[in-house]
């Protein structure tokens, strides 16, 4: 019994290390990298802004739109952008856009 009492702190320490290892070693990689999209249509209609075909993936080297306030230009999103567009209003897209265009 005395021997067990001496080994209990060591056992607890090993159990703690095992828990830390298993929780950090097997993390899922579900975090998505944000993607930048640019609205390529000149239409101000909500239905056109919700159409994924009117958006293209861009990077920092892609020339931006002319500045304005009537339509979204660039949008950064880290999920299913098509689904997001379908659930968004024109004003949502304008309000949350990274930049706007005329």
Q: What portion of residues is helical?
A: 40-55%
The helix/strand series, from N terminus to C terminus, equals HEHEEHHE
Q: What low-confidence regions span 5 or more consecutive residues with pLDDT below 50?
A: none
β-sheet strand percentage: 15-25%
Structural class: alpha+beta
Provide mean pLDDT, rounded. 86
Please tally the β strands and state the result. Answer: 4
For the largest beta-sheet, the strand count, sense and barrel status come to: 4 strands, antiparallel
Structure keywords:
alpha+beta; 102 residues; four-stranded antiparallel β-sheet
Can you lay out the helices and strands and say which pair or pack?
Blueprint: H1 2-25, E1 35-39, H2 46-49, E2 55-58, E3 71-77, H3 81-86, H4 90-96, E4 99-101
Antiparallel strand pairs: 1-2, 1-3, 3-4
Describe the structure concisely:
By secondary structure, the protein is of the alpha+beta class. The protein is 40% helix and 19% strand.
Description:
By secondary structure, the protein is an alpha+beta fold. It is 40% helix and 19% strand. It has helices spanning 2-25, 46-49, 81-86, 90-96, and strands at residues 35-39, 55-58, 71-77, 99-101. A four-stranded antiparallel beta sheet has the order 2-1-3-4, with helices on one face.
